[in-house]
């Protein structure tokens, strides 16, 4: 169970994943040892992963898309989802209710790469149909502020 201090630590790390334990401790007015213990616990239990978030546009990924995937028979949803999740272009994947079965967000180098990606997932057994929506411009790409969880 996370407490208020855990959420405050996570908020600091969301702003700057490289923030030192000393700086976090000073900001939150607790000891460095407390922060070290909390961060290590949050990493060990899988609550947080410290990673470098790359700006896709700066490294040549300029084609973003949302792909709705229709799976038939429905009993193959899990299998199809696991196969799609293995593609490195996938940034988000979820099972949905409604008109389609899986929602996939991808980042590709260009539209040709996107076409190749859609063709590859279309070959997966159980993928009955896809519907692709290209994002012309991304205005915000981030996780939600942790203050929303309270």
Explain what you see.
With 150 residues, this protein is an alpha+beta fold. It folds into two domains: 4-44, Orthogonal Bundle (Arc Repressor Mutant, subunit A), CATH 1.10.10; 62-135, Alpha-Beta Plaits, CATH 3.30.70. Helix content is 36%, strand content 21%. The protein is built from five helices and four strands; from the N terminus they run H-H-H-E-H-E-E-H-E. It has helices spanning 4-15, 21-28, 32-44, 77-85, 111-122; strands spanning 63-71, 90-95, 102-108, 127-135. A four-stranded antiparallel β-sheet has the order 2-3-1-4. The longest helix has 13 residues, at 32-44. The radius of gyration is 19 Å and the shape is elongated. The protein starts with a helix and ends in a 15-residue tail after the last strand. The relative contact order is 0.16. The mean pLDDT is 93.
């Amino acid at each position: 169970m996370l407490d208020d201090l855990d959420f405050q630590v996570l908020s600091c790390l969301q702003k700057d994943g490289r923030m030192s334990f000393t700086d976090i401790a000073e900001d939150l007015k607790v000891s460095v040892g407390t922060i070290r213990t909390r961060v290590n616990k949050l990493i060990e239990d899988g609550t947080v992963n410290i990673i470098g978030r790359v700006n896709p546009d700066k490294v040549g990924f300029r084609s973003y898309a949302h792909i709705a995937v229709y799976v038939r028979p429905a009993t193959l949803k899990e299998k199809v989802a696991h196969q799609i999740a293995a593609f490195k272009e996938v940034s988000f994947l979820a099972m949905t209710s409604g008109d389609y079965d899986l929602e996939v967000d991808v980042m590709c180098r260009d539209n040709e790469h996107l076409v190749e990606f859609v063709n590859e997932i279309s070959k997966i057994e159980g993928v009955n149909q896809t519907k692709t929506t290209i994002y012309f411009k991304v205005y915000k790409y981030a996780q939600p502020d942790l203050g929303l969880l309270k």
